[in-house]
Structures are given as C-alpha cells and as structure tokens.
Amino acid sequence: MGDFANRVFAVVRRIPRGKVATYGQVGRLIGAPRGARYVGYALHANPEPGTEPGCVPCHRVVFKDGRMATGFAFGGPDEQRKMLVAEGVGFDEEGRVLMDAFQWDGRSDGAGTESEPSGPPPDFDWKAELGE
DNA sequence: AATGTGACCCTCT
DNA sequence: GAGAGGGCCACAT
Questions:
Q1: What residue ranges define each of the domains in chain A, with the CATH number in brackets?
Q2: Measured between alpha carbons, how far is A56 from A8 in angstroms, rounded to an integer?
Q3: Nucleotides of chain C within 7 Å of a protein C-beta?
Q4: Within 13 Å, how many C-alpha atoms sit on residue A53's CB side?
Q5: pLDDT band for position A71 (cuts 50, 70, 90)
Q6: The pLDDT of residue A109
Q7: Which UniProt keywords apply (predicted)?
Q8: Angle value at C-alpha A83, between A10 and A18, nearest 5 degrees
C-alpha cells in the first residue's frame, strides 16, 4: 500500500482509548484536507483491526457528526458502537458519539476542550511513528 | 495514460 | 433548516 495509507494507520493508532477522531480530522492530520474520503479507503485495507495496542482501532474513527460508517463495519455499526461504549465513549439518544466530550484533540488526550481549531492543522510527527 | 471508485467534507441553492 | 452538487485525494484496472 502507499505511504498515505500508512500515515492514516499511524494516526489512527495514535487515537487514545476512550476517544474518537473524525475522518476529516485524520485527513487533515496527515495532510489531506480534502482527502478525508481516502482515509476510509485506506482503513478498508486495515491490516490489523482491533482494540489492542499496535492494531489499527478503526472503530474509533467516526463521522464529524459523531455517526459511524453505516453499511460497513467489522460486525456492523452496532458492534462498533458497543466497542466504543466498552472503551468509555458516550453516546446520545440518536446513537451518535458525544464529540464535544470524546473527540480526540490530535495531540494530547487530557485536553477537555475538543474544539477543532479554524487555523492550520497541527504538524504530526508520523516520521517518528513510522520509524523514519 | 486515462478512467472509475471510495468507511467524506464543504458550499451553494 | 434541509437537500443537492462539487471537489479533491490516492489507488486499482
């Protein structure tokens, strides 16, 4: 696979347990603001999905609305939701993730304010992650 | 080399 | 406020 997908995996692996990230956010982190669509495409080639560290927790990647990819998941949206709930992610009555409280910052997991900055995306150091 | 596809997001009407 | 359309990315054929 290409390096792009590799970056996607690196970023997704960086998502801490109990947090979720949006496709668009991941896309911006890897340097593809309009390539969010390919994020899911890359995750489709996910080599090792799972909750354990070292794997690619694609279940922690959801829509910006907090909704998850319906129609395709490693067991259906229901299973994915259960996995997220098991990790401590909160859902609302509509079955969407509470992005205001569980959206990953992209850099640290302790920050409570998960407001996506309007400015430029932060520089992510995937080179170190990929072992460059 | 060109065309088609895809787990999306933003903007306009 | 809701719906429709466009766009750009990388990968596969």
A1: 3-102 (1.10.10.10)
A2: 9
A3: 7-12
A4: 3
A5: low
A6: 57
A7: DNA damage, DNA repair, Methyltransferase, Transferase
A8: 60
Under DSSP, the state recorded for A61 is: E
Q: Where are the beta strands (DSSP E) in chain A?
A: 21-22, 61-62
Rounded Cα distance between A86 and A27, Å, is: 26
CA A33 to chain centre: 15
Closest nucleotide to A70 by C1' from CA: B7
pLDDT digits (tens, 9 = 90+) for A7-55: 899 899 889 999 999 999 999 888 888 888 889 888 887 767 778 877 8
User: A88, A126, A122: which is closest to A105 by C-alpha?
Assistant: A122
The dihedral sign for the CA sequence A49, A53, A58, A60: positive
Nucleotides on strand B lying under 7 Å from protein C-beta: 5-10
